[in-house]
Specification:
InterPro entries: Alkaline_phosphatase_core_sf, Sulfatase, Sulfatase_CS, Sulfatase_N. Keywords: Calcium, Hydrolase, Metal-binding. It comes from Chitinophaga barathri. The protein is an alpha/beta fold and 485 residues long. 23% of the residues lie in helices and 18% in strands. It folds into two domains: 349 residues, Alkaline Phosphatase, subunit A; 104 residues, Arylsulfatase, C-terminal domain (2-Layer Sandwich). The chain has a ten-stranded mixed sheet with strand order 8-7-6-5-9-1-10-11-2-12. Strands 14-15-16-19 form a four-stranded antiparallel sheet, with helices on one face. Strands 3-13 form a two-stranded parallel ribbon. The relative contact order is 0.18.
Length: 485
Protein backbone atom coordinates (compact mmCIF):
# COMPACT_ATOMS: atom_id res chain seq x y z
CA UNK A 1 0.00 0.00 0.00
CA UNK A 2 2.82 2.44 0.85
CA UNK A 3 4.43 1.71 -2.51
CA UNK A 4 1.14 2.45 -4.26
CA UNK A 5 0.73 5.76 -2.40
CA UNK A 6 4.28 6.80 -3.31
CA UNK A 7 3.63 5.92 -6.97
CA UNK A 8 0.44 7.97 -6.86
CA UNK A 9 2.30 10.99 -5.46
CA UNK A 10 5.08 10.65 -8.04
CA UNK A 11 2.56 10.69 -10.89
CA UNK A 12 0.90 13.79 -9.50
CA UNK A 13 4.24 15.55 -9.00
CA UNK A 14 5.32 14.90 -12.58
CA UNK A 15 2.10 16.24 -14.03
CA UNK A 16 0.73 12.87 -15.18
CA UNK A 17 -3.02 12.60 -14.64
CA UNK A 18 -3.69 10.50 -11.56
CA UNK A 19 -6.35 8.38 -13.26
CA UNK A 20 -3.54 6.77 -15.29
CA UNK A 21 -2.30 5.06 -12.11
CA UNK A 22 -2.68 1.25 -12.20
CA UNK A 23 -1.92 -0.71 -9.00
CA UNK A 24 0.91 -3.14 -9.57
CA UNK A 25 -1.20 -6.16 -8.60
CA UNK A 26 -4.26 -5.18 -10.62
CA UNK A 27 -5.53 -7.85 -13.02
CA UNK A 28 -4.51 -7.42 -16.62
CA UNK A 29 -7.05 -5.35 -18.53
CA UNK A 30 -9.30 -6.94 -21.12
CA UNK A 31 -9.34 -5.47 -24.62
CA UNK A 32 -12.34 -5.29 -26.97
CA UNK A 33 -11.93 -3.89 -30.49
CA UNK A 34 -15.14 -3.24 -32.44
CA UNK A 35 -14.28 -2.67 -36.08
CA UNK A 36 -16.92 -1.49 -38.54
CA UNK A 37 -16.80 -1.95 -42.32
CA UNK A 38 -17.23 1.20 -44.46
CA UNK A 39 -18.72 3.27 -41.63
CA UNK A 40 -18.11 6.92 -42.40
CA UNK A 41 -16.78 9.61 -40.11
CA UNK A 42 -20.21 11.22 -40.01
CA UNK A 43 -22.29 8.09 -39.40
CA UNK A 44 -22.53 7.75 -35.57
CA UNK A 45 -24.94 10.24 -34.04
CA UNK A 46 -22.20 11.53 -31.73
CA UNK A 47 -20.22 12.44 -34.87
CA UNK A 48 -23.20 14.20 -36.43
CA UNK A 49 -25.03 11.23 -37.97
CA UNK A 50 -28.75 10.68 -38.19
CA UNK A 51 -31.74 10.96 -38.29
CA UNK A 52 -31.47 7.43 -36.85
CA UNK A 53 -30.32 6.96 -33.25
CA UNK A 54 -27.08 5.43 -31.93
CA UNK A 55 -27.55 5.64 -28.14
CA UNK A 56 -24.93 3.03 -27.28
CA UNK A 57 -22.20 4.74 -29.30
CA UNK A 58 -23.30 8.01 -27.73
CA UNK A 59 -22.95 6.44 -24.29
CA UNK A 60 -19.54 5.04 -25.21
CA UNK A 61 -18.42 8.55 -26.16
CA UNK A 62 -19.90 10.04 -22.99
CA UNK A 63 -17.92 7.55 -20.91
CA UNK A 64 -14.72 7.72 -22.91
CA UNK A 65 -12.72 9.69 -25.46
CA UNK A 66 -13.86 10.66 -28.94
CA UNK A 67 -11.19 11.14 -31.63
CA UNK A 68 -11.74 13.75 -34.34
CA UNK A 69 -8.53 13.11 -36.33
CA UNK A 70 -8.29 9.33 -36.33
CA UNK A 71 -7.15 7.50 -39.47
CA UNK A 72 -7.54 4.03 -40.88
CA UNK A 73 -4.22 2.58 -42.03
CA UNK A 74 -5.45 2.72 -45.62
CA UNK A 75 -8.76 3.47 -47.32
CA UNK A 76 -9.60 -0.10 -48.31
CA UNK A 77 -10.58 -3.33 -46.55
CA UNK A 78 -7.66 -5.78 -46.39
CA UNK A 79 -4.93 -3.18 -46.17
CA UNK A 80 -6.76 -1.41 -43.37
CA UNK A 81 -7.23 -4.61 -41.36
CA UNK A 82 -3.60 -5.56 -41.78
CA UNK A 83 -2.60 -2.18 -40.36
CA UNK A 84 -4.87 -2.51 -37.34
CA UNK A 85 -3.75 -5.99 -36.36
CA UNK A 86 0.01 -5.58 -37.00
CA UNK A 87 0.71 -1.91 -36.23
CA UNK A 88 2.26 -1.47 -39.67
CA UNK A 89 1.52 0.62 -42.69
CA UNK A 90 0.05 -2.14 -44.90
CA UNK A 91 2.56 -1.61 -47.71
CA UNK A 92 5.38 -2.40 -45.29
CA UNK A 93 4.04 -5.96 -45.05
CA UNK A 94 2.96 -6.35 -48.67
CA UNK A 95 -0.82 -6.08 -48.19
CA UNK A 96 -2.80 -3.95 -50.62
CA UNK A 97 -6.38 -3.56 -51.75
CA UNK A 98 -9.22 -5.91 -50.89
CA UNK A 99 -8.12 -9.54 -51.22
CA UNK A 100 -10.38 -11.57 -53.49
CA UNK A 101 -11.39 -15.17 -52.66
CA UNK A 102 -8.79 -16.41 -55.17
CA UNK A 103 -5.98 -14.01 -54.17
CA UNK A 104 -2.49 -15.48 -54.23
CA UNK A 105 -1.13 -13.52 -51.27
CA UNK A 106 -2.22 -13.03 -47.65
CA UNK A 107 -1.01 -11.71 -44.31
CA UNK A 108 2.38 -13.31 -43.76
CA UNK A 109 2.64 -15.80 -40.92
CA UNK A 110 5.84 -14.06 -39.85
CA UNK A 111 3.89 -10.93 -38.90
CA UNK A 112 2.78 -10.76 -35.27
CA UNK A 113 -0.80 -9.67 -34.61
CA UNK A 114 -2.33 -8.15 -31.49
CA UNK A 115 -3.87 -11.55 -30.80
CA UNK A 116 -0.50 -13.30 -30.90
CA UNK A 117 1.14 -10.75 -28.62
CA UNK A 118 -1.65 -10.97 -26.05
CA UNK A 119 -1.96 -14.75 -26.22
CA UNK A 120 1.72 -14.88 -25.24
CA UNK A 121 0.68 -12.97 -22.10
CA UNK A 122 -1.94 -15.55 -21.17
CA UNK A 123 -4.91 -13.88 -22.81
CA UNK A 124 -7.85 -15.74 -24.30
CA UNK A 125 -8.30 -14.44 -27.85
CA UNK A 126 -11.48 -14.55 -29.88
CA UNK A 127 -12.76 -13.07 -33.12
CA UNK A 128 -16.18 -12.72 -34.71
CA UNK A 129 -16.81 -11.14 -38.10
CA UNK A 130 -14.94 -10.26 -41.26
CA UNK A 131 -11.31 -11.37 -41.53
CA UNK A 132 -10.16 -10.51 -45.09
CA UNK A 133 -6.46 -11.27 -44.70
CA UNK A 134 -6.43 -14.71 -46.30
CA UNK A 135 -9.37 -16.99 -46.96
CA UNK A 136 -7.85 -20.43 -46.30
CA UNK A 137 -5.52 -22.07 -43.79
CA UNK A 138 -2.76 -21.29 -42.94
CA UNK A 139 -3.92 -17.68 -43.24
CA UNK A 140 -7.15 -17.67 -41.21
CA UNK A 141 -7.53 -16.18 -37.70
CA UNK A 142 -6.67 -19.41 -35.87
CA UNK A 143 -3.24 -19.28 -37.52
CA UNK A 144 -2.83 -15.63 -36.51
CA UNK A 145 -3.23 -15.77 -32.76
CA UNK A 146 -6.96 -16.30 -32.22
CA UNK A 147 -8.27 -19.20 -30.15
CA UNK A 148 -11.71 -19.05 -31.77
CA UNK A 149 -13.27 -17.53 -34.88
CA UNK A 150 -16.70 -17.20 -36.48
CA UNK A 151 -17.24 -15.04 -39.54
CA UNK A 152 -16.75 -14.36 -43.22
CA UNK A 153 -13.24 -14.74 -44.66
CA UNK A 154 -13.70 -11.67 -46.89
CA UNK A 155 -16.21 -8.96 -47.85
CA UNK A 156 -19.91 -9.80 -47.98
CA UNK A 157 -20.18 -8.65 -51.62
CA UNK A 158 -17.65 -11.23 -52.80
CA UNK A 159 -20.28 -13.76 -53.82
CA UNK A 160 -21.96 -14.77 -57.11
CA UNK A 161 -25.06 -12.67 -56.40
CA UNK A 162 -26.26 -9.49 -58.09
CA UNK A 163 -26.97 -6.23 -56.28
CA UNK A 164 -30.67 -7.09 -56.02
CA UNK A 165 -29.93 -10.36 -54.25
CA UNK A 166 -30.54 -12.56 -57.28
CA UNK A 167 -27.78 -15.06 -58.21
CA UNK A 168 -25.96 -14.29 -61.44
CA UNK A 169 -26.87 -16.33 -64.49
CA UNK A 170 -24.07 -18.24 -66.18
CA UNK A 171 -24.24 -15.74 -69.05
CA UNK A 172 -23.82 -12.68 -66.83
CA UNK A 173 -21.01 -10.31 -67.79
CA UNK A 174 -19.74 -9.63 -64.29
CA UNK A 175 -16.56 -10.89 -62.67
CA UNK A 176 -18.36 -11.58 -59.41
CA UNK A 177 -20.36 -14.40 -61.01
CA UNK A 178 -17.15 -16.44 -60.87
CA UNK A 179 -16.74 -16.03 -57.12
CA UNK A 180 -17.31 -19.14 -55.00
CA UNK A 181 -20.30 -19.34 -52.64
CA UNK A 182 -19.89 -17.11 -49.57
CA UNK A 183 -18.78 -19.27 -46.61
CA UNK A 184 -19.45 -18.65 -42.93
CA UNK A 185 -16.33 -20.03 -41.23
CA UNK A 186 -16.27 -21.47 -37.71
CA UNK A 187 -12.68 -22.13 -36.68
CA UNK A 188 -11.12 -23.35 -39.92
CA UNK A 189 -14.22 -25.05 -41.33
CA UNK A 190 -17.22 -23.85 -43.30
CA UNK A 191 -20.26 -23.84 -41.04
CA UNK A 192 -22.81 -22.82 -43.69
CA UNK A 193 -23.09 -21.06 -47.02
CA UNK A 194 -24.52 -17.54 -47.12
CA UNK A 195 -26.72 -17.62 -50.20
CA UNK A 196 -29.25 -14.80 -49.88
CA UNK A 197 -29.74 -11.32 -48.50
CA UNK A 198 -31.96 -12.91 -45.87
CA UNK A 199 -28.97 -15.01 -44.81
CA UNK A 200 -26.92 -11.82 -44.59
CA UNK A 201 -29.58 -10.17 -42.45
CA UNK A 202 -28.62 -12.53 -39.62
CA UNK A 203 -24.89 -11.80 -39.64
CA UNK A 204 -24.92 -8.87 -37.21
CA UNK A 205 -26.84 -10.81 -34.57
CA UNK A 206 -24.74 -13.93 -35.14
CA UNK A 207 -21.48 -12.06 -34.61
CA UNK A 208 -22.90 -10.31 -31.54
CA UNK A 209 -24.01 -13.59 -29.99
CA UNK A 210 -20.57 -15.14 -30.51
CA UNK A 211 -18.83 -12.04 -29.09
CA UNK A 212 -20.97 -11.99 -25.95
CA UNK A 213 -20.56 -15.74 -25.45
CA UNK A 214 -16.79 -15.33 -25.67
CA UNK A 215 -16.88 -12.64 -22.96
CA UNK A 216 -18.98 -14.80 -20.63
CA UNK A 217 -16.83 -17.88 -21.20
CA UNK A 218 -13.60 -16.02 -20.44
CA UNK A 219 -14.69 -13.63 -17.71
CA UNK A 220 -12.32 -15.14 -15.16
CA UNK A 221 -9.16 -14.52 -17.18
CA UNK A 222 -7.86 -11.68 -19.34
CA UNK A 223 -9.21 -11.72 -22.87
CA UNK A 224 -8.94 -9.98 -26.23
CA UNK A 225 -12.07 -9.80 -28.35
CA UNK A 226 -12.02 -8.58 -31.96
CA UNK A 227 -15.55 -7.97 -33.28
CA UNK A 228 -15.32 -7.00 -36.95
CA UNK A 229 -18.78 -6.42 -38.38
CA UNK A 230 -19.35 -7.12 -42.09
CA UNK A 231 -21.54 -4.03 -42.45
CA UNK A 232 -22.42 -1.28 -43.31
CA UNK A 233 -20.37 -2.54 -46.29
CA UNK A 234 -22.82 -3.34 -49.08
CA UNK A 235 -24.93 -5.35 -49.52
CA UNK A 236 -26.68 -4.18 -46.38
CA UNK A 237 -29.36 -6.23 -44.66
CA UNK A 238 -31.05 -6.09 -41.26
CA UNK A 239 -32.88 -8.61 -39.11
CA UNK A 240 -36.68 -8.47 -38.88
CA UNK A 241 -36.42 -6.97 -35.41
CA UNK A 242 -34.88 -3.80 -36.82
CA UNK A 243 -36.66 -3.49 -40.15
CA UNK A 244 -38.40 -0.12 -40.22
CA UNK A 245 -37.10 0.74 -36.74
CA UNK A 246 -35.38 4.00 -37.64
CA UNK A 247 -37.77 5.73 -39.99
CA UNK A 248 -34.64 6.54 -41.99
CA UNK A 249 -34.60 3.71 -44.52
CA UNK A 250 -32.60 0.51 -44.61
CA UNK A 251 -29.28 2.23 -43.81
CA UNK A 252 -30.81 3.87 -40.74
CA UNK A 253 -32.25 0.52 -39.62
CA UNK A 254 -28.81 -1.05 -40.04
CA UNK A 255 -27.11 1.68 -38.04
CA UNK A 256 -29.55 1.06 -35.20
CA UNK A 257 -28.94 -2.70 -35.32
CA UNK A 258 -25.16 -2.22 -35.31
CA UNK A 259 -25.51 0.21 -32.41
CA UNK A 260 -27.65 -2.33 -30.56
CA UNK A 261 -24.90 -4.91 -31.12
CA UNK A 262 -22.41 -2.60 -29.45
CA UNK A 263 -24.92 -2.14 -26.64
CA UNK A 264 -25.12 -5.92 -26.12
CA UNK A 265 -21.34 -6.17 -25.85
CA UNK A 266 -21.21 -3.32 -23.33
CA UNK A 267 -24.12 -4.85 -21.39
CA UNK A 268 -22.35 -8.22 -21.24
CA UNK A 269 -19.23 -6.55 -19.86
CA UNK A 270 -21.31 -4.78 -17.23
CA UNK A 271 -23.31 -7.84 -16.20
CA UNK A 272 -20.09 -9.76 -15.65
CA UNK A 273 -18.37 -7.02 -13.68
CA UNK A 274 -15.79 -6.40 -16.40
CA UNK A 275 -16.48 -2.84 -17.56
CA UNK A 276 -13.98 -1.10 -15.32
CA UNK A 277 -11.14 -3.37 -16.36
CA UNK A 278 -11.82 -3.40 -20.11
CA UNK A 279 -10.41 -1.11 -22.77
CA UNK A 280 -13.04 -0.80 -25.51
CA UNK A 281 -11.95 0.56 -28.90
CA UNK A 282 -14.54 1.38 -31.56
CA UNK A 283 -13.57 2.48 -35.08
CA UNK A 284 -13.96 1.73 -38.81
CA UNK A 285 -11.79 0.30 -41.56
CA UNK A 286 -12.28 3.21 -44.00
CA UNK A 287 -14.81 5.79 -45.14
CA UNK A 288 -18.16 5.18 -46.85
CA UNK A 289 -18.64 3.76 -50.34
CA UNK A 290 -20.47 6.85 -51.53
CA UNK A 291 -21.53 5.66 -54.98
CA UNK A 292 -24.05 3.37 -53.28
CA UNK A 293 -26.15 6.38 -52.36
CA UNK A 294 -28.86 5.61 -49.79
CA UNK A 295 -27.07 2.36 -48.87
CA UNK A 296 -23.88 4.23 -48.01
CA UNK A 297 -22.97 6.41 -45.09
CA UNK A 298 -21.68 9.93 -44.57
CA UNK A 299 -18.25 11.52 -44.38
CA UNK A 300 -19.63 14.36 -42.30
CA UNK A 301 -18.54 16.86 -44.95
CA UNK A 302 -15.07 15.44 -45.54
CA UNK A 303 -13.86 15.15 -49.15
CA UNK A 304 -14.54 12.01 -51.21
CA UNK A 305 -14.88 8.55 -49.57
CA UNK A 306 -13.67 4.96 -49.50
CA UNK A 307 -10.81 4.17 -51.84
CA UNK A 308 -9.34 7.68 -51.79
CA UNK A 309 -6.60 9.37 -49.81
CA UNK A 310 -8.75 12.39 -49.16
CA UNK A 311 -10.13 12.77 -45.64
CA UNK A 312 -13.46 11.14 -46.41
CA UNK A 313 -11.66 7.94 -47.38
CA UNK A 314 -9.35 7.59 -44.44
CA UNK A 315 -10.51 9.70 -41.49
CA UNK A 316 -12.89 7.49 -39.49
CA UNK A 317 -14.91 7.68 -36.27
CA UNK A 318 -13.12 6.40 -33.19
CA UNK A 319 -14.10 6.15 -29.54
CA UNK A 320 -12.10 4.56 -26.71
CA UNK A 321 -13.45 3.79 -23.24
CA UNK A 322 -11.61 2.56 -20.17
CA UNK A 323 -13.23 3.71 -16.90
CA UNK A 324 -10.81 5.10 -14.37
CA UNK A 325 -8.06 5.53 -16.97
CA UNK A 326 -9.52 7.41 -19.95
CA UNK A 327 -11.28 10.54 -18.68
CA UNK A 328 -14.98 10.38 -19.49
CA UNK A 329 -16.60 12.73 -21.98
CA UNK A 330 -13.36 13.94 -23.53
CA UNK A 331 -12.46 14.78 -27.11
CA UNK A 332 -9.01 14.79 -28.66
CA UNK A 333 -8.15 16.50 -31.94
CA UNK A 334 -4.65 15.00 -32.04
CA UNK A 335 -3.73 12.74 -34.94
CA UNK A 336 -3.85 9.00 -34.27
CA UNK A 337 -4.37 5.88 -36.36
CA UNK A 338 -5.34 2.24 -36.29
CA UNK A 339 -1.64 1.41 -36.62
CA UNK A 340 -1.23 2.90 -33.14
CA UNK A 341 -3.64 0.43 -31.56
CA UNK A 342 -1.16 -2.47 -31.35
CA UNK A 343 1.63 -0.62 -29.51
CA UNK A 344 -0.92 1.06 -27.22
CA UNK A 345 -2.56 -2.24 -26.32
CA UNK A 346 0.84 -3.88 -25.86
CA UNK A 347 1.85 -1.15 -23.42
CA UNK A 348 -1.41 -1.38 -21.48
CA UNK A 349 -1.29 -5.19 -21.27
CA UNK A 350 2.44 -5.58 -20.61
CA UNK A 351 3.08 -7.37 -23.89
CA UNK A 352 6.21 -7.25 -25.99
CA UNK A 353 6.19 -5.41 -29.30
CA UNK A 354 6.64 -7.45 -32.50
CA UNK A 355 10.17 -8.49 -33.37
CA UNK A 356 9.87 -6.89 -36.81
CA UNK A 357 9.71 -3.14 -37.24
CA UNK A 358 6.28 -1.53 -36.98
CA UNK A 359 5.00 1.99 -37.70
CA UNK A 360 2.55 2.47 -34.85
CA UNK A 361 3.18 4.61 -31.78
CA UNK A 362 1.65 4.14 -28.34
CA UNK A 363 -1.01 6.81 -27.75
CA UNK A 364 -1.40 5.97 -24.06
CA UNK A 365 -0.41 9.53 -23.17
CA UNK A 366 -3.44 10.77 -25.11
CA UNK A 367 -5.72 8.28 -23.40
CA UNK A 368 -4.38 9.32 -20.01
CA UNK A 369 -5.14 12.95 -20.81
CA UNK A 370 -1.57 14.06 -20.27
CA UNK A 371 -1.13 17.77 -20.88
CA UNK A 372 0.54 18.53 -24.21
CA UNK A 373 0.51 14.89 -25.34
CA UNK A 374 0.97 14.59 -29.10
CA UNK A 375 2.57 11.20 -29.80
CA UNK A 376 1.89 11.10 -33.57
CA UNK A 377 3.64 13.98 -35.34
CA UNK A 378 2.69 12.97 -38.88
CA UNK A 379 0.87 10.39 -40.98
CA UNK A 380 1.32 9.10 -44.54
CA UNK A 381 -1.49 8.09 -46.90
CA UNK A 382 -0.55 5.15 -49.10
CA UNK A 383 -2.98 3.50 -51.50
CA UNK A 384 -3.16 1.08 -54.42
CA UNK A 385 0.04 -0.59 -55.46
CA UNK A 386 2.26 1.23 -52.94
CA UNK A 387 1.41 4.77 -54.03
CA UNK A 388 2.31 7.53 -51.58
CA UNK A 389 -0.61 9.84 -52.32
CA UNK A 390 -0.49 12.29 -49.40
CA UNK A 391 1.21 13.18 -46.12
CA UNK A 392 -0.02 15.09 -43.09
CA UNK A 393 2.05 16.90 -40.47
CA UNK A 394 0.31 19.02 -37.87
CA UNK A 395 -2.64 20.72 -39.53
CA UNK A 396 -1.19 20.67 -43.04
CA UNK A 397 -1.77 17.93 -45.59
CA UNK A 398 0.11 17.72 -48.87
CA UNK A 399 -1.58 15.70 -51.62
CA UNK A 400 0.73 14.44 -54.37
CA UNK A 401 -0.32 14.20 -58.04
CA UNK A 402 -1.95 10.84 -58.73
CA UNK A 403 -4.91 9.19 -60.37
CA UNK A 404 -7.70 8.58 -57.89
CA UNK A 405 -11.38 7.78 -57.86
CA UNK A 406 -13.99 10.47 -57.43
CA UNK A 407 -17.63 10.38 -56.39
CA UNK A 408 -18.26 13.95 -57.55
CA UNK A 409 -18.83 13.52 -61.29
CA UNK A 410 -21.80 11.13 -61.22
CA UNK A 411 -24.98 10.64 -59.26
CA UNK A 412 -24.81 7.75 -56.79
CA UNK A 413 -26.80 4.57 -57.20
CA UNK A 414 -29.91 3.72 -55.25
CA UNK A 415 -31.32 0.80 -53.24
CA UNK A 416 -28.16 -1.31 -53.40
CA UNK A 417 -27.00 -0.53 -56.92
CA UNK A 418 -23.81 1.52 -57.42
CA UNK A 419 -23.20 4.64 -59.43
CA UNK A 420 -20.00 5.28 -61.35
CA UNK A 421 -16.74 6.07 -59.53
CA UNK A 422 -14.31 7.07 -62.28
CA UNK A 423 -10.64 7.87 -61.82
CA UNK A 424 -9.44 11.42 -62.38
CA UNK A 425 -6.12 13.22 -62.28
CA UNK A 426 -5.56 14.65 -58.79
CA UNK A 427 -3.15 17.60 -58.81
CA UNK A 428 -0.62 18.65 -56.17
CA UNK A 429 -2.40 20.44 -53.35
CA UNK A 430 -1.74 21.71 -49.83
CA UNK A 431 -4.62 21.92 -47.37
CA UNK A 432 -4.91 23.37 -43.87
CA UNK A 433 -7.16 20.81 -42.24
CA UNK A 434 -7.73 22.95 -39.16
CA UNK A 435 -9.78 25.42 -41.20
CA UNK A 436 -10.58 23.34 -44.28
CA UNK A 437 -11.29 19.69 -43.41
CA UNK A 438 -13.16 19.40 -46.70
CA UNK A 439 -9.90 19.99 -48.61
CA UNK A 440 -11.36 22.65 -50.87
CA UNK A 441 -8.73 25.41 -50.66
CA UNK A 442 -5.24 24.77 -52.04
CA UNK A 443 -2.84 26.97 -50.04
CA UNK A 444 0.51 25.83 -51.45
CA UNK A 445 1.19 29.32 -52.89
CA UNK A 446 0.83 30.83 -49.41
CA UNK A 447 2.97 28.22 -47.66
CA UNK A 448 5.83 27.13 -49.95
CA UNK A 449 8.03 26.23 -46.95
CA UNK A 450 5.38 23.81 -45.71
CA UNK A 451 5.30 22.14 -49.13
CA UNK A 452 9.08 21.83 -48.99
CA UNK A 453 9.05 20.42 -45.45
CA UNK A 454 6.34 17.85 -46.16
CA UNK A 455 7.97 16.83 -49.45
CA UNK A 456 11.24 16.16 -47.66
CA UNK A 457 9.46 14.11 -45.01
CA UNK A 458 7.69 12.14 -47.72
CA UNK A 459 11.06 11.35 -49.30
CA UNK A 460 12.13 9.56 -46.12
CA UNK A 461 9.15 7.23 -46.53
CA UNK A 462 9.85 6.73 -50.21
CA UNK A 463 13.32 5.48 -49.31
CA UNK A 464 12.10 2.96 -46.74
CA UNK A 465 8.61 1.97 -47.93
CA UNK A 466 8.87 2.90 -51.60
CA UNK A 467 6.49 4.84 -53.83
CA UNK A 468 5.06 3.59 -57.11
CA UNK A 469 4.17 7.15 -58.14
CA UNK A 470 7.85 8.15 -58.26
CA UNK A 471 9.18 4.68 -59.13
CA UNK A 472 11.10 4.35 -55.86
CA UNK A 473 11.58 0.89 -54.40
CA UNK A 474 11.65 0.78 -50.61
CA UNK A 475 14.38 -0.81 -48.52
CA UNK A 476 12.15 -2.03 -45.68
CA UNK A 477 9.19 -3.71 -47.38
CA UNK A 478 8.43 -7.28 -46.30
CA UNK A 479 6.85 -9.99 -48.40
CA UNK A 480 3.29 -11.14 -47.73
CA UNK A 481 2.32 -14.76 -47.31
CA UNK A 482 2.01 -16.80 -50.50
CA UNK A 483 -1.18 -18.76 -51.10
CA UNK A 484 -0.23 -22.03 -52.77
CA UNK A 485 -3.67 -23.43 -53.62
Amino acid sequence: MIRQILAFCLLAATGVAVYSFIPSKAPKPNVVIIFMDDMGYGDPACFGGGPYQTPNLDRLAANGMRFTNFYAAQAVCSASRAGLLTGCYPNRIGIRGALSPTEKFALGNGEETIAELLRDQGYATGMAGKWHLGSKPPFLPLQNGFDSYLGLPYSNDMWPVNYDGVPYADTAKNGRKNYPPLPLIDGNETRKIIRTLEDQSGLTALYTERACSFIRENKKKPFFLYLAHSMPHVPIAVSKKFQGSSGAGLFGDLMQELDASIGEVLKTLEENGLSKNTLVIFTSDNGPWLNYGNHAGSTGGLREGKGTSFEGGQRVPCIMQWPGHIPAGTVTNKVASTIDVLPTVATVCGANLPKNKIDGISILSLLNGEKGANPRDHFVYYYGNNQLEAIRKGNFKLVFPHKGRTYKLNLPGYDGFPGAQPNVDVPLGLYDLSMDPGETLDVQAQFPEVVKDLSALADTYRKTLGDALTNVKGTENREPGKVLN
